Amino acid sequence: MGILKNWYDGNLCPAEDIAPQNKKYHSIVTKIGKEKEYFATKLSSDDRERFEKWDSLRYEYEEMTDYANFSYGFKLGAMLAFEIFAEQENE
């Protein structure tokens, strides 16, 4: 299935599909999860609730940042492609 069809059908979500290619990525993600679990078990119920709210806010922030980065990169790539084709037409 092509990119346009996936995009049209709502199956294209770069923020969910992108993962760094760095070999350390998956081990860091695992460590983050273990640390989160550790602190969640050590906190009082009030602090745990506050920690979960903080974690939700952090996720929302990261989602916005991911979108802004993707959007900027996409626009930059489109402008680069446009400039390349515009220069070819002027030659």
Brief write-up:
The protein is mainly α. It is built from four helices and no strands.
Q: Would you kindly provide a written description of the structure presented here, covering whatever features stand out?
A:
There is one protein chain. The protein has four helices and no strands. By secondary structure, the chain is mainly alpha-helical. The two termini are 36 Å apart. Helix content is 81%, strand content 0%. The protein has helices spanning 3-8, 14-17, 25-42, 45-90. The mean pLDDT is 88.
From the alpha-carbon coordinates, what is the Rg to the nearest angstrom? 20 Å
Number of helices: 4
Largest sheet: none
Question: On the 0-100 scale, what is the average pLDDT?
Answer: 88
* Intertermini distance: 36 Å
Helix share, percent: over 70%
3D shape: elongated
Helix and strand composition category: mainly alpha
Strand-residue proportion: under 5%
- Give me the count of strands: 0
Low-confidence blocks of residues: none
What is the H/E string?
HHHH
